[in-house]
Write a structure and sequence with these properties.
Elements: E1 7-10, H1 14-25, E2 34-37, H2 42-52, E3 55-56, E4 69-72, H3 79-86, E5 95-98, H4 105-111, E6 117-122, E7 132-138, H5 144-154, E8 158-162, H6 168-176, H7 178-195, H8 200-220, H9 225-232, H10 238-248, H11 251-274
Parallel strand pairs: 1-2, 1-4, 2-3, 4-5, 5-6, 7-8
Antiparallel strand pairs: 6-7
Helix pairs in contact: 6-11, 7-8
């Protein structure tokens, strides 16, 4: 059961905090069973302890033998060093989970002890409000029981999608980085509302409600996005004029390029890390 498991985060940045917040809000994970550490930013650790009631630790004093699920949530460039440090400290039954773009299950398996249980996940910052779209790819040595437990843990933060690992980069482009695209869109809507004389806070709320309503329509109905567009558009109407402007200015291309570039960068990070030759 989740409430009997101990979870640790190596890394205490925004993504780690979002995941911690989502887990605690469900009340399935007691705060005292979550341990957070980082490379040395004690102020950040103290803030998370005060805000969420979690335990904090230095990397050297982390109680590895107590931990069931160890999340790697530092910057990707720190993965090599971290895996080298923890290799001989973690028990074989522990599940190591990468939350880092480009860190594959095979990359972790090659640098940890033989047959170490590993899982790769990609949540987004909407974990903080339990609305993340989170992907999960299972390593070669992770048994079904542990995989199911991690999936249940991730479900504390939103919807979980178990996918083949070769789809993780495009998932990163769509969902891992996706919230930022919508924030950018809403920022533009807010700005044009303000320029037109609308109070900026009101414009922000109107944009947010509009995006939220559109997303809810997709989630709660069977119509495709194209069908929902057809339901709105009338010939020579306001929506048609707006869509024509988006097409004229390559709005669709811009969205596609955002997803593709994020996915491409995820692949690049993986290749960069694979080129670091350190004995396993």
């Amino acid at each position: 059961m989740l409430n009997q498991k101990t979870i640790a985060f190596m890394g205490a940045g925004n993504m780690a905090e979002a995941m911690i917040s989502g887990m605690i809000q469900t009340e399935k994970i007691p705060a005292q069973q979550i341990i957070v550490t980082n490379r040395g930013n004690q102020d950040r650790l103290n803030l998370l302890k005060e805000k969420y009631g979690v335990r904090i630790s230095s990397i050297t004093e982390l109680p590895y033998s107590e931990i069931d699920f160890l999340f790697l949530a530092m910057k990707p460039k720190g993965a090599e060093e971290t895996l080298s440090v923890i290799k001989n400290l973690i028990p074989k039954q522990q599940v190591v989970i990468s939350v880092l773009a480009g860190i594959s299950t095979s990359y972790m398996e090659e640098r940890l002890n033989p047959e170490q249980k590993v899982i790769r996940v990609m949540p987004n910052t909407s974990s903080m409000i339990q609305e993340s779209a989170t992907a999960m790819s299972i390593g070669a040595y992770t048994d079904e029981g542990n995989a199911a437990m991690v999936e249940e843990l991730l479900a504390c933060m939103g919807e979980v999608y178990v996918i083949p690992e070769d789809q993780m980069d495009i998932f990163t482009g769509i969902a891992g980085s996706g919230p930022a695209y919508f924030y950018y869109l809403m920022e533009q809507m807010e700005n044009i509302g303000q320029v037109s004389g609308m109070d900026n806070e009101m414009a922000r709320k109107i944009a947010a409600q509009t995006v939220y309503g559109a997303a809810k329509m997709i989630m709660e109905n069977e119509e495709t996005p194209a069908e929902l567009i057809d339901n709105i558009v009338s010939p020579n109407g306001t929506t048609a004029a707006g869509l024509n402007a988006l097409k004229k200015h390559n709005g669709g291309v811009a969205i596609s390029q955002a997803v593709n570039h994020a996915a491409k960068r995820s692949k690049e990070i993986s290749k960069e890390l694979d080129n670091i030759l350190v004995p396993s």
